[in-house]
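This part of the workshop introduces the protein records we will be handling. To make this concrete, we reproduce a full record directly below:
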Amino acid sequence: SAGPSEDAREVRAGSAAEGIRFLVLFDGECALCNGWVKFVLQRDRRGIVHFAPLQGPTAQRILAARSDAPAALTTLILVEDAGTPAERIRVRSDAALAVLRELGGIWRLVGWLRVVPRVVRDGVYDFIARRRYQWFGKEESCLVPAPGMRARFHA
């Protein structure tokens, strides 16, 4: 497929997230999603995973510049090499498994789930995602990162 347009590159180039190796875009109102962010923060010893809520301007700029981005803000999105020519996105189960792989250690072993066909993995992901508010609730306020973690969060 064709690369991003010049306009799209300009939008991405203005992002504060430019050059970040791993940027997770998550539903900031979802208690399950916020739990995932906390889980990753506690286990990301290298501090390489950054976060931005799907409802915020960073995610909106990135997604508006991409023709391959999901239309609905209902899924986990991993942006790799944000704002660079190598930028790519992974969604749903592919995003979650890629983040776990980057955590290293025992979490890297979860990568074996990639042998399960994506349609099956994403089917399970979608089943849970459709019920996430019902099962886990909604957050009344945004996740407030600890002072040492604030640099890894983008509005």
